[in-house]
Design brief:
By secondary structure, the chain is α/β, with parallel strands linked by helices. Helices cover 44% and strands 16% of the residues. The chain has one domain: NAD(P)-binding Rossmann-like Domain (Rossmann fold, 3-Layer(aba) Sandwich), CATH 3.40.50.720. Bound molecules: NADP nicotinamide-adenine-dinucleotide phosphate.
Length: 309
């Protein structure tokens, strides 16, 4: 198939490009920089220089590539996030998820592409307080934490726009592996080595995790699967009290500190506290059933030992 990949040079874009090319697809990767365009060509893709926020240029680029499939992996998330400044840190990503997605879908339509896939996240389900994993039918945040409101609205809009166009939404778990913050050289490893990645309160926040290579393979499977929403997470969403010590161990950091919730709140803010203590996991049953996909790293336990780069 001919694939137009927006975001083919990023954390998920790189392994996805390799996976698509290895499967025999013809890929046009989009980037804003000539250096990244050269890198795309060196890996075996066509490259097009374009900014997703330039509607006319994007339309012309996608139409010229004449793809069967358009994949949206556009984000611009800082490598190190400040949980108290989520609005600031996600401002550009919000724009890409709303305006960028709208532009890309209009361009895909103009180009006559038959399939559309967009990147979303598996960690915005409305918490229930029950010890169950969320499926795709479960409601998303009804009242998101204040600091996360705009980011959440942008995610919702991206999903709605994609589904209205009969596309596929992949709700990835938290990425780990090369190029992400959860890598041997990633920003969370650096924080862990400085003992700045503590277990907050009881460490009950459950994270759905996914290795970027497994996320790439799920995206490949989605090319042939039915449109819809899929959680792309591993088999073992885990509370922070379990995965943080294992991550510290895997990156050669000392054991994490335990920080009482009362002391953590001023540093972590409302959103940080939710993520560290109350977040809930998601199930990959639908992706396994409908896409025939299985993560190679069924659990982050093995993925952290072998796949952090
Ligand atoms: N589910 C998750 O956990 C999740 C999801 C996304 C990101 N992250 C994390 O966030 C961090 C940063 O990753 P990232 O993927 O956001 O950043 P990134 O690795 O820099 O990739 C962003 C991609 O989007 C493209 N892009 C950004 N703005 C664009 C624009 N205006 N027009 C065209 N292309 C544009 C970039 O292309 P060029 O720069 O080449 O132009 C690049 O290919 C990583 O630690 C990653 O793991 C996590």
């Amino acid at each position: 198939m001919k694939v137009f990949l927006a975001g083919g040079t990023g954390a998920i874009g790189k392994p996805l490009l390799a996976t698509l090319l290895a499967a025999g697809h013809h890929v046009t990767g989009m980037t804003r920089s000539t250096a990244n365009a050269d890198a795309l060509r060196a890996r075996g893709a066509e490259a097009v220089l374009c900014d997703a926020l330039d509607e006319a240029a994007l339309r012309a680029s996608v139409v010229a590539a004449a793809p069967d499939v358009v994949i949206n992996q556009l984000t611009a998330i800082p490598r190190r996030l400040d949980p108290r400044k989520i609005e600031r840190d996600f401002a550009l990503t919000n724009k890409l998820r709303t305006e960028g997605t709208r532009n890309l879908i209009a361009a895909a339509r103009a180009a006559g592409a038959s399939k559309l896939i967009s990147q979303s996240v598996a960690f915005v389900y409305e918490p229930t307080g029950r010890d169950e994993l969320h499926s795709e039918e479960d409601p998303l945040y009804r009242s998101p934490p204040k600091a996360f409101k705009r980011t959440f609205e942008a995610i919702e809009q991206l999903e709605r726009t994609t589904l209205d166009a009969h596309g596929t939404v992949l709700r990835y778990g938290y990425f780990y592996g090369p190029g992400t913050s959860l890598a041997k050289d990633g920003s969370l490893a650096e924080q862990a080595r400085k003992r700045q990645l503590p277990i907050v309160g009881g460490g009950g926040g459950v994270w759905p995790l996914i290795h970027v290579d497994d996320a790439a393979k799920a995206t490949l499977a989605a090319l042939d699967g039915p449109p819809g929403v899929y959680n792309i997470v591993d088999d073992e969403p885990a509370p922070t009290r379990e995965w943080i010590p294992a991550f510290c161990d895997a990156v050669g950091a000392p054991k994490p500190m335990h920080l009482p919730a009362l002391l953590a709140r001023p540093v972590a803010g409302g959103y940080g506290m939710l993520v560290m203590t109350k977040a809930e996991g998601a199930t990959n049953a639908k992706a396994k059933h409908d896409l025939g996909w299985r993560p190679d790293y069924a659990s982050w336990r093995e993925g952290f030992r072998k796949g952090l780069g």
